[in-house]
User: Fold this.
Amino acid sequence: MDLRRAYAEAARITRRRARNFYYAFLSLPRVQRRSIYALYAFCREADDIADGPWSVEEKRRLLSRLRERLEHAAKGDPLLEQDAPLADTIAVYGVRPEDLHEVITGVGADLDFAPIETFADLRLYCYRVASAVGLATLPILTGGSVPSDEMRRRAEALGLGMQLVNIIRDVAEDLASGRIYIPMEDLHRFDVNEGDLRRGRVSEPIRQLLAWECNRARGYLEEGEGLISLLPRRSRSCPWLLSRIYGRILTRIEGSGYDVFSGPRSLPTGVKVYLLVSSYLRRFLWGSS
Assistant:
């Protein structure tokens, strides 16, 4: 297997598909960055299977096959060349395969999507599709050291906050796919129903609902920022950039009066580049170690 070629392909997938993550990954040293690309490519494949054009039965088969490939990669025996970077990353940094299995479980939940009743239910979903990804990257960010419990707690919060921002931003897109990720208990709290959301107008109850969700997301982002000071200085730019990018998306949503129906609230490329440059400047404050 050509490991260099496989790493290069993982990098291409990340450049092409990772709208926000790619800028955060650029802030990392090259060796760490390529391993992050390997993890992203794996998680991207899982997500693409869940959202793909196949039947539910075929998606389940493909996800089961992906689990088998993960198990082989964890043993240092990748079944496909594209899994070689993942196997190498697990071996070098001690990435926990259990975290990546959680990702597969999370995307698989969308195959039999049912309304999410409580925030506890949503938190479990977010843990699997987002926080578990962050937990998988932690050993790379620590340079192979075993992350502390506090690091894991903060990384879990950061992933949860980021996924909550995605859910708020993508309300209209998810509705078009027949999904509402905002918990039913929150809709009931503000007297909002699915029909109200499908009308695509920001009524006062919807504004209050989305303000509630934005405040919750911001709280988790702020909690997750505690991870930054716990990491080696060379790795701090990555979570700093992610928290800033997603925080600014929240600010744009709030500034629009919570109008998530009239168009995307993603950040312009220029803003992401500005934040990336800012992260390099912050290294002088953090030091170079």
Remarks:
- The mean pLDDT is 93.
- The domain at 3-286 is CATH 1.10.600.10 (Farnesyl Diphosphate Synthase).
- Residues 117 and 184 are 5 Å apart (CA to CA).
